[in-house]
Hints:
Serine Threonine Protein Phosphatase 5, Tetratricopeptide repeat; 2 domains; mainly alpha
Amino acid sequence: MTLHPHDPGALTSLGCNLKSQKKFSEAEQCFRKAIETAPATLEPRLELAFLLAETGGSNKSLDKLDKCPENHKQTLLWKLIRGRALLVARRPQEAINFLLECANAGFRLGRSYLWLAEAYSAMGDRKRETEARKRAKELETNLPDEFKDPETTDS
């Protein structure tokens, strides 16, 4: 693959590929370069925010999301990533609002319900956590073990 250093789509794709290989620093560089190249593009901003949230930089992630243009903040993808970043930042009640909106709109349902289950768990709401995990399992058959219901996961 030939990488065009000024193509935000190619940089974002490369960043996602690097992230999946757990090369987080290199992925972050790709996302930042894509943002620099095309500041109005949503996808690299969200991917960077998601990467930062997943690697423990939840405050940085929330800052990146807050700096997105207002029209981006109306998208379900932005709301899903925002919900995840809030969850990682240990703000589950706020996360639930964003994640429920995504789930109710039918957006990336499996992931929305998985993260809802995490948020409900963090709040000690076992009933809703179980319901969300069950719904996620119905929607996504290949769940990573960390998202499966602890009471039904084989050890």
